[in-house]
Amino acid sequence: MIYADIIIDISSDKLDRSFQYRVPERLEKTIKAGMVAAIPFGNAGRVCKGYVIGLSDKPKIAPEKIKEISEICSGEETTESRLIALAAWMRENYGSTMIQALRTVLPIQEKIKAKEKKYICLDISEEAGTQLLKELEQTRFKARTRLLRELLEKKRLDYTHAAKELGTTSAVVKKFQEQGIIRIEYDEIMRTSLNTGDISGERRMPLTDEQEAAVKQIQREWKKPSPKPVLIEGVTGSGKTQVYIKLIEQTLSQGKEAIVLIPEIALTYQTVRRFYARFGDKVSVINSRQSQGERYDQFKRAKKGEVQVMIGPRSALFTPFASLGLIIIDEEHEPSYKSESTPRYHARETAIRRAVLEHANVVMGSATPSVEAYSKAMNGEYSLVRLTTRYGSRPLPRVSIVDLREELKAGNRSVLSRELRQKMKGRFEKKEQVMLFLNRRGYAGFVSCRSCGHVMKCPHCDVSLSEHNNERLLCHYCGYETGKPRICPVCGSPYIGGFKAGTQQIEKVVREDFPEVRTLRMDFDTTRTKGSYEKILAAFAAHEADILIGTQMIVKGHDFPDVTLMGIVAADLSLNAEDYRCAERTFQLLCQAVGRGGRGEKPGEAVIQTYHPDHYSIQAAAVQDYQAFYEEEMSYRMLLDYPPAAHMLAVLGSGPEDEKLVQAMYYLKLYIERIYRENDLHIIGPAYASVGKVKDIYRQVIYLKHKDHKTLVHIKDQLEKYIEINSGFRKIYIQFDFS
Ligand code: ADP
Ligand code: ZN
Ligand code: ZN
Q1: Which residue in 360, 373, 465, 528 has its CB near the most CB atoms, within 10 A?
Q2: Alpha helices in 319-382 (DSSP H)
Q3: What does this protein's record comment on cofactor binding (predicted)?
């Protein structure tokens, strides 16, 4: 006997209110998640329709009380049906409950109003405001005076803050609004800032021959009976965006819609405006700065057919377009395409699955494709398209590698090598701009005792605290903050210091070496407030500074035509991360950083400073040789059975009690050994995760490696069942992570 879980109302947040129905024998073979079923509902013999969200062989209540499905309404497939089918696929392939998967995929209207942030903004000039303030100060309108005074200073105020701190009532707001003194804004979204910008300068640009050939090749692929996903390997500046735009044009002309995924960090005004320039108000953007309500509204507009192109990060993949024709994944290699919460899906695989369900096409692009995607292109699963020349035949920057060990030998202890400093000097003299990139991935600026080596750690997480402005120590995992101690808590020594390699330190060195140079810094500290990121980029573009110093934030998708020198301060910090992908990430970041330079008329140059000048990821990045890197990296992955040579499943356990967790994970490993007896499964662990404790929750992990993905999925299925019935896992949260 099979039972189906059926959900009747998918528009509300009551997704967990599903009902079980018996599946009649004649439907057992056809029924699938996502199908619309007619079911008896209530006692009055009423029939209504619902979505099948899952199937099981276990009744949740007494079997005689379970009613039977009347019918499958075939031909009534909707966008939601397909999204539910996608959720079922995600549940199956990544491991999660069906509810978790549905919540990821369906736009849910959740407590929207409460979450939406409202702002009061000054809508008159500063002079007019000051004048008005003077007048108001003479009156008895104290609340209005307070509000205006604060607005003149801050320009934009949080509504709740104003109500609480300044006693601003809705009557005051209304009055000011009527008088045109203020306007109300909701959580700032990209649309509004874009609409005020001038996009008239952007015209349709004819494709280059190479771009044209790429488009033709993709169109030929699409004409095939079962088109493959396309991977565009295109050097930085080759015009991948031009190609995307052309493909979107074609999709729209067929009455279909397109989704464009861009990593959050690259989702800037500069990238998005090119799509606006071409498609105008057919385009909508979602990003993580929007409130849940705003994102829900964007999805609603897409569903109603009010927009045809949705641009956004990972989650934009689930835009409920009625006839989706194309999914583009830009910067396909970006780690942010993998979800960090259950279901831990990868946008690339999930996009390909959605495309199958929708009969749509997938096009991915990158200058440095992920090893996973490229190996699929190599074995023919994807179709590969190459763009090898930069637009306008601009040469790639000339790159020199500086061995930092040699610098030390020569007595130079500065973070700037002699060569880099020399080149910077030259640029500043010519009034050209410089960027300095500090590769800090997998590295935190920890603080330790110089006498005994004690490292200051977060009391709630198994990570070291890092030093920020004003000698504050901060935990990047839980936000715990404390003052820097005067003496070491272990040995009492007063010599406590940070490891001086942060962006702040580099800025200080630059200022000392070049006192007349104007600097800008972009990192965790300077971009914490809203809008600051865009502001820094705009200021640099407007030549308000000669040098921009920053973390990986500065290497993504911005064109600064006057930057002619890119300095990479410490290329190999990311090589030390405990991850089999660290060489790949290093290579990708360096390529992107090098590719930033020389985009304008003047040729670019880059200096890579490193302690590992012979490492293949650095050597290959210096000459932007993807093929060389790929071959070396693949042989390493094959040797050690890392993806894509094999598949990996991480079973992550977490819980508040250390001992219980250790025990449960140990039993889990024994269980795996019992259910899978072939010796082609590689089991590693259990062991503490690389960060073994976060917010007082302990974390352990077991890694499973196998050649066949299906085997790992099968093991995951059995583990899910085992965990569900075993009381030892009651206070332990198990998550699955495939790679
Ligand atoms: P990629 O995404 O491959 O790094 P972009 O699409 O950002 O490359 O293009 C790089 C630069 O070249 C952009 O400034 C873009 O405007 C310009 N460009 C690319 N193709 C063309 C074209 N066919 N006509 C005019 N300008 C182009
Ligand atoms: Zn000490
Ligand atoms: Zn912490």
Answers
A1: 465
A2: 347-358, 371-378
A3: Binds 2 zinc ions per subunit.
What is the Cα–Cα distance from 584 to 567, expressed in whole angstroms?
20
10 Å CB burial of residue 164 (0-12, 13-18, 19+) is exposed
The DSSP symbol for 282 reads G
The angle formed by the CA atoms of residues 556, 558 and 564, to the nearest 5 degrees, is 105
Structure tokens at 659: 């001992």
Amino acid of residue 496:
I
Side-by-side strand order, sheet with 283-285: 283-285, 309-312, 257-261, 324-330, 361-366, 230-234, 383-387
Residue 290's alpha-carbon distances to 112, 118, 260, 287, 312, in angstroms, are 12, 12, 17, 6, 11
Q: Select from 232, 241, 278, 556 the residue to mutate for testing ligand 1; criterion: most ligand atoms less than 8 Å from CB.
A: 241
Task: Show Cβ contacts of residue 478 under 8 Å, excluding neighbours closer than 6 positions.
Answer: 458, 460, 461, 694, 695
Q: For position 13, what pLDDT does the model report?
A: 58
Closest-approaching ligand to the CA atom of 454: 2
Distance 696 CA to ligand 3 centre (A): 8
CA distance 526 to 517: 19
Rounded mean pLDDT of 59-70?
86
Looking up tokens 């259910």, which residue turns up? 675
Q: Is the CB of 592 within 6 Å of ligand 1?
A: no
Would the CB of 557 count as within 6 Å of ligand 1?
no
| Digit-coded pLDDT (tens) for 630-684 | 999 999 999 888 899 999 999 999 999 999 999 999 999 999 999 998 889 999 8
Nearest-ligand number for the alpha carbon of 490: 2
Question: 296 with 109: CB under 8 angstroms?
Answer: yes
Count CB-CB contacts under 10 A for residue 31. Answer: 16
Cβ of 466 below 6 Å from ligand 1: no
- The ligand minimizing its distance to the Cα of 482 is 3
| CA–CA dist 632, 636 (Å, integer) | 7
Atom of ligand 1 nearest to the CA of 207: 23
Q: How far is the CA of 464 from the centre of ligand 2 (A)?
A: 15
Q: What per-residue confidence (pLDDT) applies to 155?
A: 82
**Sign of the dihedral through C-alpha 124, 127, 129, 132:** negative
Query: Looking at the predicted structure, is the pLDDT value of residue 53 above 50?
Result: yes
pTM over cut 0.90: no
Atom of ligand 1 nearest to the CA of 208: 23
Instruction: Report which protein residue has its CA nearest ligand 1's atom 23.
Output: 207
Ligand 1 near 631 CB (within 6 A): no
All domains of the chain, ordered by start, with CATH?
3-109 (3.40.1440.60), 124-180 (no CATH), 209-392 (3.40.50.300), 398-444+500-637 (3.40.50.300), 647-738 (3.30.70.360)
Distance 59 CA to ligand 2 centre (A): 62
DSSP assignments along 418-440, one per residue: HHHHHHHHHHHHTT-EEEEE---
- In sign, the C-alpha dihedral spanning 477, 482, 484, 485 is negative
Which residue, judged by its Cα, is nearest atom 12 of ligand 1? 391
